[in-house]
C-alpha cells in the first residue's frame, strides 16, 4: 500500500512545557528587579522634591525673616504641591519658632539626638508609617532632611 508522508507543524508537549518553565524563571527574576527600580526611582524623586521644598523654605526665610509655620503657607510654590511620589503630604515642623512642646516632636537619631535645629522636613516613605526616632524599623524608608540640610536621603542611610 501507499503511505503519504505527513509534515507535522507545531510544538510537542515537552517543548511547550520547557518554554513555559523558561518564561516563569525569567519572570521570577525580572519582577523583583523592576520593583526595586521603581522604589529607587520614587526615592530619588522624593529626595528631589525635598530639596526643592527646602529651597522654598529658605526663600521664605529670606523674604519674611522667619520660617513658615506650616507648609500650607507656601504650598503654591512647592514641587508637586507638597505631595511626595506616594501621594502623601511632606511633614514639616518649625523647631526654632515652635511653641511649647515642639522639641518633643522633633525627629531624633539612634542616640536620641535631634537631627535638625531649625525645622524638620521629611516624607513618610513607601510604607507611610514613621516614628520620631529615625533608626526604628518604621522610619527606615522615610526620606529625611537632616543636619539642617547637610544630609538629604533615606533614613536608613543616615
TrEMBL record:
Q: Does the keyword Nucleotide-binding apply?
A: no
Key words, A-Z: Membrane, Methylation, Transmembrane, Transmembrane helix
Ribonucleoprotein keyword on record: no
- A Pfam family (short name) is N_methyl
Q: Which Gene3D superfamilies match?
A: Glycoprotein, Type 4 Pilin
Classify the source by domain of life.
Bacteria
> What is the name of this protein?
Prepilin-type N-terminal cleavage/methylation domain-containing protein
Q: Which residues cross the membrane?
A: 12-34
Amino acid at each position: 500500500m501507499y503511505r503519504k508522508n505527513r509534515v507535522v507543524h507545531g510544538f510537542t508537549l515537552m517543548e511547550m512545557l520547557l518554554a513555559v518553565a523558561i518564561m516563569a524563571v525569567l519572570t521570577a527574576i525580572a519582577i523583583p528587579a523592576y520593583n526595586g527600580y521603581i522604589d529607587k526611582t520614587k526615592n530619588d524623586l522624593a529626595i528631589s522634591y525635598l530639596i526643592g521644598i527646602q529651597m522654598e523654605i529658605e526663600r521664605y526665610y529670606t523674604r519674611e525673616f522667619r520660617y513658615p509655620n506650616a507648609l500650607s503657607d507656601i504650598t503654591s510654590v512647592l514641587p508637586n504641591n507638597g505631595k511626595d511620589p506616594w501621594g502623601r503630604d511632606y511633614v514639616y515642623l518649625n523647631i526654632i519658632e515652635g511653641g511649647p512642646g515642639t522639641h518633643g516632636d522633633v525627629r531624633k537619631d539612634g542616640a536620641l539626638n535631634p537631627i535638625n535645629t531649625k525645622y524638620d522636613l521629611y516624607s513618610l516613605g513607601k510604607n507611610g508609617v514613621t516614628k520620631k526616632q529615625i533608626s526604628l524599623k518604621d522610619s527606615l524608608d522615610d526620606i529625611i532632611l537632616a543636619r539642617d540640610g547637610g544630609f538629604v536621603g533615606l533614613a536608613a542611610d543616615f
